[in-house]
Amino acid sequence: MNFTTSPTHNVLLGAVTLLCCALAPQAQATDASPAADETTVTLGLGMGVTPRYMGSDRYRPLVLPMLSIQHGAWFADTTRGVGLQFQSDSGFSASAAINYDLGRKEKNSTTSPGGDELRGMGDINGATVANFTLSQQLLDWLSVNGEAELRMAGEHRGNRYRFGLEGILMHTDRDTLSLAIDAHAGDSRYNQTFFGVTQAQSQRSIYSKYTADAGIYAYSAALNWQHTFDAHWSTLASLTLTQYADQASDSPLVRREGSGLGLFAINYTF
After folding, report:
1. How does pLDDT run across 121-158, given as a tens digit for each residue?
2. CATH number for the domain that contains residue 259
3. Numbers of helices and strands, H then E, in the chain
4. How far apart are CA 145 and CA 137, in angstroms?
5. 218-234, pLDDT tens digit by residue?
6. Domain assignment present for 243
7. Which first-to-last residue range defines the signal peptide (predicted)?
8. pTM above the 0.90 mark?
9. I need a surface site. Which of 90, 191, 223, 242 has the fewest CB within 10 A?
10. At 72, is the secondary structure helix, strand, or coil?
11. How far apart are CA 42 and CA 69, in angstroms?
12. How many domains is the chain built from?
């Protein structure tokens, strides 16, 4: 399996896909598409715990101020970035966005991934990325989806991919309980950046040399519960379990093959 692409190819692919998504709502708009003149703003605050970095056996508190603005097909989101989304009444949806990846620090950080045990590995600088998602509803309660995150500028850290299934376990007027099961993959540069150890890094750190190839590096299961109080207030509780495998499981940087992320958020929409 080979996921390798050049930075120039990523920029061109990003531009073409953004253009296609921009044209799609005009050419294929359906009743399921957001109204062109409707604007929705959501403010929120999320709190939880997350591993210090991918593969870490230590955790750090997570505080996430959240802002989401939706105007027709356009959105600006502190989680997803800035972009376009499209949804048809046949159950197909797609989005394209520009976002920013924080990278990884070689010391403990309260605002980005990193840990003191990574000293000598060097920082992984941030990178501007293009995110593309596709989803197709198979049944009333089941959909298949995929995501590609392509590096556009900044750190040459490669590209990552995700594909999986999402099922609605329960849905009422006030509550929605869903389960998403995904496989996470990276090209050779991405896996080497986050899980590999070069000879130079090995000499500066406590880790032995390790070379990661392209392929799946983890599987995850995410349980999400959204509760709506009224037209404005809602909460979200999320638990994500990740199991590192294949290209990551033998990496000396992965101190624990299984990890969890817990998050609780309260949101106000107006």
Report:
1. 999 999 999 999 999 999 999 999 999 999 999 999 99
2. 2.40.160.40
3. 3, 12
4. 9
5. 999 999 999 999 999 99
6. yes
7. 1-29
8. no
9. 90
10. coil
11. 7
12. 1
